[in-house]
Amino acid sequence: MKPKRIILVRHGESEGNVEGTLYDSVPDYALKLTENGKQQAKNAGEKINEIIGEESIHSYVSPFHRTRETFAHIESVIGAKNVKTIEDSRIREQDWGNLRSYDNEKRIMKERGEYGIFYFHIENGESGANVYDRTSTFFEMVHRDFLRADYPENSLVVTHGVTLRILLMRILNWSVEEFEDVYNPENCEIFVLELNDKDEYELITPLRK
User: Fold this and answer.
1) Cβ–Cβ under 8 Å, residues 9 and 70
2) Quick one: CATH architecture of 5-203?
3) Spatial CA neighbour of 39 closest among 191, 187, 190, 157
4) Which member of 15, 69, 75, 93 is catalytic?
């Protein structure tokens, strides 16, 4: 049976969010949370507790260090309500290639914004469309999980900014234009989709456009 809710969370504030020049020397996947990011993750755990009450939850986590750390702090709050955790590389952040200079990143961000985030292909990395394709196969697996009779009442996905928006696009059948009209989520921002009486997921979290 489908879970009552799908809860999407972006990771907490990372070292890269604070100091962009770190991308020169630290791989994207290895960037960790700041102290502020750790507290944001604990606060997110408290909010998730309020949302699910005494219900159980099944979690899917990007393998990047900052998402794993975020989930660890969330789990420290929700405790035994989390009955299973799966790390899945298909919900990692959009690939920017390898190490990159801060100046080059700013140039790419500008070019991507002008061209369109979904279709712009980062050299040696990915386009938003590539992320859409891999997250689609992720959701095929998740929907198979939903068929289990013992699946928990809630599903949690801890991921990244662009990937989270593309997951919403995938679940809610947004057009490319609708995707590009939505701002990137804040660190540890929570998005809740609830199952309605039509057996479809409906976003109950307001979007910033």
Assistant:
1) yes
2) 3-Layer(aba) Sandwich (3.40)
3) 187
4) 93
Contact between residue 81 and residue 108 where contact means Cβ atoms under 8 Å apart: no
Reply yes or no on whether 121 is catalytic.
no
Q: What is the pLDDT of residues 107-152, one digit of tens each?
A: 999 999 999 999 999 999 999 999 999 999 999 999 999 999 999 9
Average confidence score pLDDT of the chain: 96
11 part of the active site: yes
Rounded to two decimals, what is the model's pTM? 0.96
At residue 102 the predicted structure's pLDDT band, cuts being 50, 70 and 90, is confident
Are 55 and 137 within 8 A, CB to CB? no
Only one residue has tokens 């969010």, namely 17
Q: In whole angstroms, what is the distance from residue 42 CA to residue 22 CA?
A: 25
Decide if pLDDT at 104 tops 90.
no
